[in-house]
Amino acid sequence: MITTHRLPEQAFRSLASGGGDPDVIRCLLAAQLSKQIMLLHAIAKAAGDSDPMDPGVMAFTAAYKLLAEVQTARQDSFAWLLGLPHISAWAHDCLIRLNRGMPPDYGYLAAAASAAAVRAGIRFELDVPVHDHLVPLPGLGRFCVPDQVSWVRVDGDNEFLTVGAHVKAPRAAVVPDDGLVRRIPHWQGTALARVAADGHSWDVLLETSDRYLDRFTLAISPDLTPDEAVIWRRCVQSAWQILVRYHKWAAGPIAAGVSVIVPLTPRGGNALDSATTPAAFGAIATSPPPNPVILAETLVHEFQHLKLCGLMDMTPLIEPCDQMVYAAWRPDPRPAGGLLQGVYAHLGVARFWSIQRQVETKPDSVFRAQVTYERWRRTIEPSTRTLLGAGCLTTAGTRLVAALRDEGRSLAAEPVPADATAVADELALDHQLTWQLRHSATEDAAAAALAAAFQRGEPFGDQRLPDTRVDEETRKVVSTVRSGLLSLRYLDPGRYREVCDTGMRGPNDTADSHLMRGETPEAVRAYRDEIAATTEGQPEAWIGLALALHRLKQAPWQSLATHLPLIFDVHACLSRAGVSCDPLELAAWFT
Amino acid sequence: MTLPQQDLRSTIPDLRNLPLDRIAELGDSVLAQSIALYQQRLKDNGVPLSSFNSGI
User: Fold this and answer.
1) Domain count for chain A
2) Are A241 and A162 found together in one domain?
3) Residue of A nearest to B9 (CA)
4) Do A100 and A237 belong together in one domain?
């Protein structure tokens, strides 16, 4: 009788509150191992239904047999291989291909099984595919063979490995490259960061060559040069030190659950991109981090996603749902499942900064930490409220989101300096209003009815608020220099001061310049003039006006914060009819 | 009074101690159902099967 994996109630509760110690992560890993075996079986079944003389199918069949031998001889090597995100990513690719009626890359299992056999030190012989002279051994590295061939015989035992006719290597040297091992001809070990701090160690591969892990939005980094590998190792070491010293709640679980970092090719500029996928549990992809603190934050953030992916593999948390909603960290509307992933990740991020703000010592770094903490902490309550109201959570999902909400509330009790709160307020308002103008839509007739009521002098309170819907792009709102500067103000206060001193350029240059220099009444006047000066909508100026009034706590900022898309549409309707209308007067009517 | 919650029972069969070359002996039903459930869940949750997606 076959049983299914169970997650102890206590483990669920700790995951639900955003935590989970290494034992909890090992529960998730155990289920992942079974999942990989299950997927491997599905692929084996498809291979069994394929042409037995196909070289890929033949290699797969032999590799499957070898894996069974490894499992019997060295369960740890078997579990190591199937725990690699490489294998999970490959298995998912196979499923995709099979679903589409395309042949999967059966031969990859030969490379994978060879890696497991090498690690186990057992005798084997397999034909393994060659791509561009390279023979990958997932999780270990790759051989470079001189022969122009598409398959090569790999023959190994406890002492040596031979690859084709010309390459022979001692088995003990066929290992990842931690920067200290002796290099041998034809072998390139996958870069390995072997880091330690205060007696806690973590081994993590820096994978740049596996084609199944090259599936993120950004391309995988080209092979790391030795110097680049050194820089990555140093950064991982420093980030690990930060995690071990100040974020123990995250360090141990990350070491237990993350086996691979996938360096990504940066987009350019200072932007850091990071990613995870449920198809590759244990891998975190990231472009080069600017410093170890940001890498530590990224590891915490992405590991939250992995934990949730692992949990969702064990039990559904959310039902299929078409509803698209606001997420405070994204410019576009998100499905409820995306919001759940996001709020779970940002709870981890908020916890990270709640501690990190006590650790930083330089004034600018402290300020950055305080604002970052406050910025993400405050997203938890409204995001969990949206999820709990969306009606698409399962029973377990509802319990999890309620626990997240409670955890967010416990963070809310921690005081934040007023200047940091003010900046976080403006960032949140700018993001929310930009999103609303971009994506919140009402019927034209509803705006026209409100415009007519305004002209007749009827109270706003007597009007029926029209229904709104979420659209891909309701209005064109360009990403303003102002939004960038609002972020720069806390992300890099020194650079922000420089920019403010030397002047700014942008579509609302004058008004934005006033706002950024703290000349807020002048900014209100300038935004108001810009809106009045043209009959075409000025969404960026409306947002600026709301920000400036909010900073002054001057009416009608609440109306703008609550009804901006509607006010914008009514104003546009009046303008089209040739009615000149002061934006503040109109906004005040919406009170 | 709140009743104590039970351990969460997943849909993933525990295959860890089963020899790989004997999994087929389980027959199709248990595994096929779990695999179908898994693939359906990936589709339902909007995880594209064609590419990885970091979007949250």
Assistant:
1) 3
2) yes
3) A6
4) yes
| Residues whose CB falls within 8 Å of the CB of residue A311, separated by 6 or more in sequence, listed in order | A7, A12, A15, A28, A317, A400
Tokens representing B26 are: 């389980």
Q: Of A205, A221, A250, which closes a domain?
A: A250
Instruction: Please report the pLDDT score of residue A500 as a whole number.
Output: 78
Domain that holds residue A356: 318-415
| Closest in A5, A44, A278 to B10, CB measured | A5
Co-location of A404 and A448 in the same domain: no
For residue B50, give the nearest of A8, A96, A305 by CB distance. Answer: A96
| One domain for residues A444 and A539 | yes
Instruction: Examine residue A257 and state whether it is found in any structural domain, yes or no.
Output: no
Contact A95 B49 (CB under 8 A): yes
Distance CA A135, CA A96 (A): 24
End residue of a domain, out of A207, A231, A250: A250
Report pLDDT for B52: 37
Residues A88 and A172 in one domain: yes
Band (A286; pLDDT cuts 50, 70, 90): very high
pLDDT tens digits, one per residue of A146-189 = 988 999 999 999 999 999 999 999 999 999 999 998 889 999 99
pLDDT in tens, A69-85: 999 999 999 999 999 99
- Using the beta-carbon criterion (under 8 Å), do A215 and B51 form an inter-chain contact? yes
Residue reference for tokens 């995951």? A15
Dist. CA A524–CA A528, nearest whole Å: 6
Full-model pTM: 0.93
Tokens 């040596």 found at: A160
Please report whether residue A1 resides in a domain. no
CA distance B16 to chain A (A): 6
Least Cα separation, residue A575 to chain B (angstroms): 38
Domain-located, residue A288? no
pLDDT at A22 over 60: yes
Give ipTM to 2 decimals. Answer: 0.85
What's the CA dihedral at A166, A172, A174, A175 to 10 degrees? -170
Selected for mutation to probe chain B from A26, A37, A40 (highest B CB count within 10 Å) is A37
The reply to whether A388 and A526 lie within a common domain is: no
Longest dimension (CA), chain B: 49
Q: pLDDT tens-digit profile of B1-56?
A: 455 678 888 989 999 999 998 887 777 666 777 878 777 766 665 444 333 344 44
Which amino acid appears at position A315 of this protein?
Answer: T
> Other C-beta atoms within 10 Å of A9: how many?
13
